[in-house]
Amino acid sequence: MTTGSRRVQTPRAFRRSVRCSAIHGPSRFGLAALRRAWRSASALASACALALAGLLAAPQAHAVHAIAQYGTPKYPAGFKHFDYVNPDAPKGGTLVLANPSRLTSFDKFNPFTLRGNTAPGVDLLFESLTIGSSDEVASAYGLLADDIDIAPDGLSVTFHINPRARFSNGDPVTAEDVKFSLDTLKSPQAAPQFASIFSEITRAVVVDPHTVRFEFRQRNRELPLLAGGMPVFSRKWGLKPDGSRIPFDQLAFEKPIGSGPYLIERYDNGRTITFRRDPNYWGADLPVRVGMYNFDRIVYKLYSDNTARLEAFKAGEYDALVEYVARNWVRRDVGKKFDSGELIKREFPQHNGTGMQGFMLNTRRPLFQDVRVRKALDLALDFQWLNRQLFFNQYTRIDSFFANTDLQAKGLPSPGELALLEPWRAQLDPAVFGPPPKQPDTDPPGSLRDNLLRARALLQEAGWTYRDGALRNANGDPFQFEILDDSGSATSMEPIVATFIRNLQKLGITATFRVADFAVYQKRLDAFDFDVTTIRMPDVQVPGSEQITRFGSKAADTPGSDNVIGLKSPAVDAILKALVQAQTREQLVDATHALDRLLMHGYYVVPHWYSGTHRVASRRGLAWPKTLPLYYGAEGWITSTWWHEQPQTQPQPQAQSQAQPHS
Domain Solute-binding protein family, which positions (predicted)? Predict the structure, then answer.
């Protein structure tokens, strides 16, 4: 979405992606449990949250093909396909792509464990009970399930599994497999965040071979989403011929047994992987799958850095590039092949919320525990200069955790917001009860000098004064910190960070830029061993429990959780509880607005910027549907709905390389 947008390819994305939409793409930040494969369908999955949850208010249980929280689903029973696909798209050909994230190598196929780096594209192997549409905010349709039955008291949801559903090994998908998936993901062998994600689901009950019931601790509108969106895999994954089982957390290059449209065909040394469309894929003619997954093969090639990846694209090594760096789009995505039309650049509009991208401040560090210090750092970022000099005026400053949606707090708090905030008035900054803060501006009559003077005053109030050549506290300790990045995105971020560091130097602050290998970077992030880093929290159209793992106090102490900033606030916890328990759209909006006010006034992030389009360069001969989805990630849109105008003849598969896990 933005220059330097480093979308962590993490299972953190699960909570909102949960394969709830067929159109999914990479995410810079999500939930640590699915950290390397379940990427960005976050906005689309959010839609599913309210969609499934809507039935909870129903007076009696019922089973339907689809549900919507407000009104009725767009697509009625018996619909043929989604509007944003081409049902007549030709099948065939190979789509070659580069790193969809900062990942430069992989050492496993299992996306549900914390350790290691998962191969890109493995989400193509798994499916869930339900799936959302990408052109409505709150809807969900059956995928593995052919109907959904939510109990009148909202304390359980029952799914009937389509008898046709099959795993890649030919076995039917059964209720036992669904229960096994839940039990495994909640076990200590899965990434620890799953226990938190599914904590309100007490158990899965096998009613019969094709019927499974999820039971909840309490009535919560989002729980049917979490149950329906849970990835399902076979009980036989990891089972040895002698009947013994490889521990789930030790599964590496054992090929997953899922029900998705693709199979792993071959891979090589943790750098390339080829997926082949399953000729026996069970769901090809489902309305939610018609016109989708048109390529016979999808290949990912992983390059060492952005420069190598861009040059490889120009050399014809892969077919499509989603460009997140404005400078590249204007200055580097050019040349003879673009001039001749062999490579084509287009900008596709999207209606996703912005999410939050910025310099994340780790408040576990004493240095960042004073809000005045955090506000001073925000004042030191000169977005207007960056936009003119580096971004070619392509961006808008992010000024909310829910920007570009009606969930962004504006003006004074509404009565509904005040009802949530008032009990905490004594603990909150009085400014929370006023308008949301505006981001610093250096366009005339504003100036960077004025902003830095304000920052200096705030720092002095917080006990930091300039002496002996540095900004120091009462103990004489200098104000210094490290901005951590990984080698995959350092090239694009370096000029931005350098400008920020230069402004900080004028305040007497010493900041250094540390670049680490991605695996090292991810390990430090999981352990919260950093001062400042830049990440992106994916957008959500309908907030839900992902906000608890991003900002809840309990998550702050959970290694690998989404609460990177380390926020612990009883007021925020109370607002989060109101958010996930909201029974109406109005209650949800009030809670989200209140949360936005608390977060923005807390200055936990120095916000970056966003664009309202996806920038995509592709090879001539690729085609896409005339009707675009509304809420989508570009990479997932390409893999799921594009096609070759004239599919080429496929080469014979080569022998699979016996790659060994990297240390």
Answer: 142-548
The neighbouring-strand residues paired with 361 are 532
Residue 36 — left, alpha, or beta (φ > 0 → left; ψ -120 to 50 → alpha)? alpha
DSSP string, 225-244: HHHHTSEE--TTTTB-TTS-
| Residues shown for the chain | 663
- Give dist(CA 610, CA 259) in Å, integer: 35
* pLDDT reading at 230 higher than 50: yes
- Write down the architecture of domain 11-347+613-644 according to CATH: 3-Layer(aba) Sandwich (3.40)
Distance CA 414, CA 539 (A): 24
Tokens of 531: 């001062």
Q: Over the stretch 641-662, which tens digit does the pLDDT of each residue have? A: 999 997 655 444 443 433 333 3
CA angle 444, 445, 447 (to 5 degrees): 70
Rounded alpha-carbon distances, angstroms, from residue 38 to 32, 418, 634: 10, 36, 14
Residues of the chain with CATH 3.10.105.10: 356-610
| CATH 3.40.190.10 boundaries in the chain | 11-347+613-644
From CA 107, how far away is CA 521, in angstroms rounded? 16
* CATH C-level class of 356-610: alpha beta
Give per-residue pLDDT as tens, 130-169: 998 999 877 789 999 999 998 999 899 999 999 999 999 9
Under the banding of pLDDT at 50, 70 and 90, the label for residue 195 is: confident
| The pLDDT value given to residue 473 | 97
pTM of the model: 0.76
Q: Which two tokens stand for residue 645?
A: 């105008």
